[in-house]
Amino acid sequence: MIQRRAFLLASVAALAMPGRLAAQAQAQAVPGSRTGIRIAGARAQIEIVEDSLGIPHVRADSLHDAFFGQGYLVARDRLFQIDLQYRRDQGRMAEAFGAAFVAADTAARLFHYRGDIDAELAAMPDGVLDCAKGYVAGVNARIAELEADPAQLPLEYAALGIRPLRWDLRDLARARGVETGDADDEVRRARLAALGLLEADRLMSPLRPAWDFRMPDGLDVAAVTEADLGLLAPSARPQPFWSLQLAELDPEQRHASRFAMGSNAWTISASRSATGRPILANDPHLGIGSFSPRHVVHLTAPGLDVIGAGAPGLPGIMQGHTDRFAFGRTNSHIDQTDLFVLRTAPADPELYWHKGRWKRFETFDETIAVKGASARQVRLRYAGGRPIVAQDTGRQRAMAFATADMLPGALMRFAIIAINLATDWPSLMRAFTLHVSPTNFHYADINGDTRWQVIGFAPRRPRHDGLLPAPGDGDHDWNGLIPVAELPSLRNPPEGWFASANQLNLPKDYPYGKKIIGFEWSDPFRHDRICEVLAAQPRHSINDSISLQQDVQSLPARALVRLIPRQVSPAAMAAAAMLRAWDCALTAESGAALLYEMVMPELLAACRMALIPEAARDLIPTVNLHAMLAALGAPDARFGPQPAAARDQIIDTALAAGWQKALERGGPDPALWRWGTLHQVVITHPLQAVPRIAGLFPRIAGGASGGDGQTPMARGLNVRNGYAVTHGASYLQVIDVGGWDNSRFLLLPGQSADPRSAQYRDFYDRWLAGGMQPLWFSRAAVDANAARRLLLVPA
């Protein structure tokens, strides 16, 4: 990939030149002139105005060409990122990287939709398919440019000796992604039930709302083993390079990662807003430390005017606003997966018992090309479209994995387009029928209407609750989906605001038993702190939202401080004194914050030993933070004959151990401790383990961070792997609904993944400082801040 500034600064005279000669002519251009590039796939000229912050604004004459521009720009800035994901989704890693990826490719192909792809595409709403075609054509147009001049390819390709794959529209509907959901939780609960210790699971995974475990009729919990996860177990799918850490995740880390990737969002009505217009704020919490999961762009065409952040490789804008409404999202924990135990025939393992008769697995044979070795032949099995992830012919047993992603119509890769094309709430509700991923959708429009709507595929379970594996004889099968209109929603609440942060937010009168959505939700700490702040503000401003997104007040820290015994041992006195004097703000400069982060893992480990029966500890590697604090706040017989005294001793011991660890990590002088010294934001290439890659892509580092995974400014970490930030809000937005040019955003670390680009890390320092930047939208504002112009001309 050539440098962005060099790529864009050229004269219109370059139109007559092929790609490389045009690039050579660009150095003599002046800012504001237009670079012209002839390119195949566009239907008419497309103008791209890039503002001084590096955000491209695509101006096209058709919806197809607007999305063509997005595809082209994403491929320009993030080609290797989207190409790598495309390879993974298609199960084509082994052909580039060797036999170590055959298992991963097998799993990826197992999650390819085996129904009628043409029917899937034909059923999409008007305009959506043409936009998707434009996006794919834009990606391929950029790849074609680079094929003509391989010297301009992103640096990874020469280092690895590979070339990018051309995209196929049908693959966007075929590849559904390897989704493990809560399969390992279901297996763990069955194994605990076999030990008579299922209730202990609540300390690791509290059920929200309160719920009694219901054993599915006919389930033999004693027969369930870890082997039933089959291809869903990370250990079964080794993935070298960037996923070494992921492949080695233990059960505790796997469980925690599902709830770490959350988000914050709040919507303020005009009556509560200092602007007199609604405000919508959103900061999606995704992985930090590698490729940026968002790319910002503005798309305009007749019938379309939308700006915000998209996921590279996914057409459309996921968080942002149109000229009519603003929208944001957080995860909603709909349970979309189930393991089903199938009985296979003793004489023919290709037969399984279902609804009173033997049925034959649907089988598909695939050939996996392998670099440096002969191709591998694999047979993939399905039971009624559900992938078979494990089979034990000796036990006449197979495991079918039901996932919403594999259902007909589960076209998540097209859903965002439909949302972007919507013009009002009714058209959004129609777009939501394509949206598979479980989401709290936030909405505010120029008429002052504000809404929250749960969207996503929610399976109907007639005879079980999804918490344990279920017999696969047909009696427990899903029987359709809960319609979006029947999922929880809210409109213009009297409080004048609402917020979501992945917590349990289903209405109290929601019929849980009849319409099960799920029972595993994130701890409420971020949400409760957001509500605490919003409730205290009679008029909420844009700057108030910006400040709240940077808030590092820790509610768990407050709870811990309240629990410190009045009398502590000499070994715990220094820690108790420092924490009692602390304001519970996890700032980067705080020494008490560092101490707190040392104490809490000690407390979690001690409570696990005290509260989890010994026979269950191998299956319950950790306890939930919220459940632990609740237990400590009201100690009961689980702590022994003198619960309060035992509780106080556990806290005392954790304080003393945390103090010693703080001395080790922070140094001998507590006055010099700083949480940010340990809690760093480091960005490396995901293939950093490959020496050739490490030498080409310099680390982006040096930034100290406050917060942790439970503060509104979410900066999560994995203590087992150190204290660096591993997840958080790499993209943030605060939208002034109707006063669009007043909106603000941030992106980490920059638009481009190429170290030769000026946009490789230009947002890193701004992001660390919380320095929100203007998200220019009106034509006048964009033109006033234009830095470069690019004209794509049909070849």
Beta-strand content estimate: 15-25%
What is the average of the pLDDT values? 92
Distinct helical segment count: 25
* Number of DSSP-assigned strands: 29
Q: What general form does the structure show?
A: globular
The largest sheet is: 11 strands, mixed
The CATH superfamily of the domain at 555-673 is Aminohydrolase, alpha-helical knob region
Specify the CATH architecture of the domain at 555-673. Answer: Orthogonal Bundle
CATH top level label of the domain at 555-673: Mainly Alpha
CATH domain topology of the domain at 555-673: Penicillin amidase (Acylase) alpha subunit, N-terminal domain
- Level of helix content? 25-40%
Strands side by side in the biggest sheet = 1-29-2-3-6-7-8-9-17-18-20
Using only CA atoms, what is the Rg?
27 Å
Terminal CA distance:
21 Å
Structural class: alpha+beta
Contiguous runs where pLDDT drops below 50 for at least 5 residues: 1-31, 242-250
In short:
The protein is an alpha+beta fold and 795 residues long. It has a domain at 555-673: Aminohydrolase, alpha-helical knob region (Penicillin amidase (Acylase) alpha subunit, N-terminal domain, Orthogonal Bundle), CATH 1.10.1400.
Description:
This protein is α+β, with helices and mostly antiparallel strands and 795 residues long. The protein has a domain at 555-673: Penicillin amidase (Acylase) alpha subunit, N-terminal domain (Orthogonal Bundle). 31% of the residues lie in helices and 20% in strands. An 11-stranded mixed beta sheet has the order 1-29-2-3-6-7-8-9-17-18-20. Helix 7 (128-148) crosses helix 13 (412-421), helix 18 (570-580) crosses helix 21 and helix 19 (591-611) packs across helix 21 (643-666). The chain is globular, with a radius of gyration of 27 Å.
